[in-house]
């Protein structure tokens, strides 16, 4: 890291924490400066064994070690987890608080943790595990440039980062990029099923689907062309792709994506009210 690594504690050792911590360690973040807590031991044992990070079942204990606390529990549990931290950790205002939870607004965390906290909201995604994450970030106005540079570098280590203007934008980024891997996996699984339906075994069908997805994503990143133009390059006039694309368009794939993203944004907004 260019920025001085800080002691960082993750509260909750679920899918997202495992992805981020795995990616951070792989990108060179010192594992002896990472703490992770979780109520049940199985995930902690795996993290301690594979990544050599510090673990505990006690949230307050890991928080006390940390300069940076990452809240990584489900939104439904956030109020209770924060209430316990507030009771047990005296100097929360001196620490940088990062949350990766969908929906819940910074203002709400001030109720949960105290009015004087400084906070960054990050909306990551699970490909962070393989260093290909996409994380959106937004900070309150108490967060310093140093804090922002540090957290940007930490999440750049597990993929790409994008600072957004406000929390409304973060809800949208979450609905596109946070949830996005699920949309792509759903689509890839459906292509796999189509190939299996025509006689391929699952393994071969998966191999061709995942390599094609990887190739398409890498081409999109490498190219200056619009995505629509990349699609056209594959679609020879009178050829087979044109027939396949006609089917997607008949089901109005744009509307499917539009509806999906709007539904996910709406749920983020609901969670902001609920928790
Ligand atoms: N999974 C994803 O793709 C993404 C998730 N997020 C956010 O990340 C957060 C975590 O999501 P996941 O990792 O998917 O959930 P998860 O359910 O896999 O992980 C949550 C973890 O918290 C632990 N936990 C439960 N009660 C706890 C407590 N009192 N103290 C400490 N840990 C406790 C659970 O045992 C579990 O290991 C959520 O708020 C979600 O909105 C954000 C972006 C992407
Ligand atoms: O489904 C969720 O609520 C979280 C946020 C983005 C991905 N997973």
From TrEMBL:
Pfam family, one: P5CR_dimer
Source species, domain of life: Bacteria
UniProt enzyme class: oxidoreductase
Signal peptide: none
Catalysed reactions, as listed in the record: L-proline + NADP(+) = (S)-1-pyrroline-5-carboxylate + NADPH + 2 H(+); L-proline + NAD(+) = (S)-1-pyrroline-5-carboxylate + NADH + 2 H(+)
Primary location class: cytoplasm
Enzyme Commission code: 1.5.1.2
Main function: Catalyzes the reduction of 1-pyrroline-5-carboxylate (PCA) to L-proline.
Protein name (database record): Pyrroline-5-carboxylate reductase
